[in-house]
Amino acid sequence: MDPDFEGEEDESTNTAPSIFVEPDVPDPFVIDDGEGHSDDGGKHEHSQSPAAEENIALAQSTILEPPLGEVAPRSFPSPDINKAVPPPPTEPVSDDDDDDEEEPPDLYLPGLIIPTMFLPIPNTDPLTTLLTKFLPQERRPTRDLTGQWHHADFHTLVMTNSWRAIARMARDRLVSANPEDLALILSLWYLRLSALARMRLFNQTSAECANLFMVINSIQPESARTWLYDRLLPFELEVLHAKTKYWAGDHMGYLDSLVVLLKRCRQQARQSARKKDQVANGMWKERGARLCLIIASQLIEMKDFIAAAKILEPLCKQEDGTRSAHLQSAVARIYLQGGCVEMAVKHFSDVVQDPTAEASLKTMNAALLAAAEGDWEKADQAFRQILQSEPDNYLAVNNLAVTLLSQGHIKEGIQILEDALKSSPSLITVAEPLLFNLSTLYELRSATAAQKKRELLIEVAKWAGDGLRTACLKMPNA
């Protein structure tokens, strides 16, 4: 080789840039600079480090000397494939019963807000029929049957018994709601169905309720449907759905549905107690108590008074050991209505010994017991005693009128009920038992019965709103 070339090579080699090595990762290949420059000239570019071959037998890559005049590329170390593999992350320990952190499923139910889910509300009612039949047009009070709801707020609509407007408002808001806002949609559905039921449109209520639950029960997968029932669906809607069997005439089927809901309340209450969730536990217990009251009411309607009382008796005792005086009085009255005077006296005595019970409640119980025993004078005195301290106790007003009727004081009984009607027409006109008793007293004074009933019809049409059961007026529709 030319000596000049060798000297030039040495000079270039001394100025060549060094190989960059990652500071954190040691280079597995050890290159000796003295052995790298052999007498073979260019052959040194392909020489491997013996130390690399001995220490790491699996690494087949080599590091080459950069050509003269070029910058050496960045050298990347070979991966250490023999390093220890980190252990997999441990899964969090979860309780099978703890579903508080369960992610809600993605539910999109546009079928709940389509207009075809709803039926048109009739623009007339039985009260309008009576007005047309018994009163001339100039004497008929003006009644709004259009269902306009924009002119008043929700509280005013409820207080005036404007159930037609409420039902229409719920429908209008439903068809314009966001399908993803299921909480609002289901609440509006309950408002719609409740308003229809208050209007006594039971067939329409049942039809729309069937449309609602047809969409809900078609949700797939089943876990999403279960989540909706447990977390989002108002419990009142399930009770209303069970009530459709009652409106269809299947009273036993209605009771069966209520019992199923009651069992579910018990299961949920026990499950929340195991989780120590006091809020959920109290909620499910309250729902179970309400269902017991509904079941007892249905049993009373079916004349099974003993069964109704047996259902309510366990509820009289509270968790803290105290007893509910009002509920125990209700149980005693059920026994009294069923003819079990001894059991009624027993419960009435417990209320008398309860220091937390109001004096008016004890007096009312004594008056009812005296009336059941036929002691009308004692019952009369007790009811009048209640009215002296509570003039707006219209339950005592109605019972006093019945007591006066039993004593033959028909005129005085009419006067008491008419005074109550004048003092609070918005409350009395929706109290169907009181209207029925007043109509009966009018009939017993046969001379003015027809005219008095027409005047009563006018007052009812002014204040009653929607949904009154017109049979309480004892005026024929046909």
Give me a quick take on this structure.
The protein is mostly helical. Helices cover 58% and strands 0% of the residues. The chain has 22 helices and no strands.
Structure description:
With 478 residues, this protein is an all-alpha fold. Helix content is 58%, strand content 0%. The chain has helices at 3-15, 33-36, 50-55, 126-134, 154-159, 163-175, 182-198, 202-216, 222-232, 235-247, 251-274, 278-301, 305-312, 325-337, 341-352, 359-372, 376-389, 394-406, 410-423, 425-428, 432-444, 449-463.
Task: Offer a few descriptive terms.
single chain; 478 residues; mainly alpha; flat; disordered N terminus
Low-confidence stretches: 1-16, 28-73, 92-100
What gyration radius follows from the Cα positions, in whole Å? Answer: 43 Å
* Major β-sheet annotation: none
Output the structural class: mainly alpha
Shape: flat
Distance between the termini: 133 Å
How many runs of DSSP E, i.e. beta strands? 0
